[in-house]
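Limitations

Structures in this collection are predictions, not experimental determinations, and the ligand pose is part of the prediction. Treat each record accordingly. The example that follows, with flavin-adenine dinucleotide as the small molecule, is included so readers can see exactly what is and is not provided: the inputs are given verbatim, and the output is the predicted complex.
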Amino acid sequence: METAAHALAIMSSLRYTPSLHYRCSNTLIVMQTSAPGITSPLTTCDVLVVGGGPAGSAISALLAEKGWDVHVLEKDHHPRFHIGESLLPHSLPILQRLGVLPEVEKIGITKYGAEIVSPYHGRSRTLYFSKALDGSQPYSYEVKRAEFDKILIDNAVSKGVRVHEGIRAKRVEFRHDSTHLVQAEDRAGTTITYEAKFVVDASGRDTFLSGQFGGKYRNPSHNSAAVFGHFEGVRRLPGKDEGNISIVWFDHGWWWIIPFKDGTTSVGAVCWPSYISTRKVPLEQFLWDTIALCAPVAERMAKATLVGQAYAAANYSYRRSTMRGDGYLMVGDAFAFIDPVFSSGVHLALNSATLGADVVDAYLRKSPEYQRHLQEFERSVRLGVKTYSWFIYHFTQPAFRNLFMSEGSKFKMEEAILSILAGDAFGKSPTRLPIFLFKIAYYLVYLFNFRENWTAFQRRIRGVPETVTTLKDYALHDRR
Ligand SMILES: Cc1cc2nc3c(=O)[nH]c(=O)nc-3n(C[C@H](O)[C@H](O)[C@H](O)COP(=O)(O)OP(=O)(O)OC[C@H]3O[C@@H](n4cnc5c(N)ncnc54)[C@H](O)[C@@H]3O)c2cc1C
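Predicted complex:
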């Protein structure tokens, strides 16, 4: 109440009422503006973070812990729908460090592994994280992102971060050897200016700074789009496997089935552009039609009903060559995003935010350790993206399917793949040699069945250069 009264006092000292959304000690205070186009006074801070997803919440909380005055701009309002619901085991130590693990445990269903279903082999197999090379993280959680992201942003607020919801960052004026000016706008069209010593772009697939600088390029080897929704009545796996993610291959890409604690399930298809461009019906109907094309998914969804609306995400495979500059850093999807198949997105976002916090802290303190932190940040972020990329590009090839479905792996290949599936992607475990051997095995199997693999490859990349224009990406348009 005291903080609310304090904020009200500040606001009433202003001669107008811009639409500022303050979170003070877990209390969201919404001040509505009455006059569009009005420009508010300057808000100053040490660090301005654009985006209140996992990357933005994590880096802001860690920087606030180090004593910096951090503000977050979030164009949306938490809790809000977001995709990216299957977490990796190696994210748990990061969540522990942030202090949110007990709360995540409460909302999550435990995921011990991944069930891989191959209609081409007529069977499935389950890979358990406990068998990874470093079996120290044998499980993770499936979470609704509305709940998960709310926990993370509330945690940032509890550490002193000022979160402004419903405020979209528009542009940054970078000033050499000085502070930087961030122009933002609330939903009523009021312009708000923030002055910060450092700017963090954690805007996810909106890629806020890339919009200003350019430099983001579509992935030349991969392009997909996804259609998905939350459902009731999806059949679950039995016993301990109930919380496992299921990944199902089909002719136009692959499916995920992610169960939630409340009994609902996230189901989505990642499809090649050539298939998406055949859509002639509304999105929800297209989702049901696509379900009918994959027998193992259709069977589990025989009694399912959609909860809420169907969503789409399009053209999401991209990266940029640089992730930092004088006075700014990009973390999470703001730098790169390839594909969700290994559920790596949130893990990469949390990892880059953690390392990014050390970079920003060292920059602000003018520490001699700055270069070292920067190098470690870049090395780790690039290695993570690179590690997952190879698997993502080859995951739907017949050669990969055959190797993945064969039991009795040699030379610890399976254990090494499980390590990467668990999020051990930054070179901590000795995965290099077994993964190298797996790749050799893959190319040999590929050559052995060259025609089949070549045809599958052609089918996957057909249409990659074109953008999918028939789908509206839910995350990139305003949900006002
Ligand atoms: C189809 C699909 C399925 C996926 N499945 C998984 C999965 O199972 N597991 C997994 O780990 N990952 C998955 N991902 C990836 C995951 O969604 C992302 O990698 C993850 O959310 C990245 O976190 P982030 O904080 O970088 O970005 P985000 O979570 O996208 O957060 C960015 C935030 O910035 C805000 N924002 C954007 N622009 C502005 C602006 N200009 N001003 C103010 N605020 C702004 C947005 O509203 C948003 O809240 C999936 C992705 C897709 C597309």
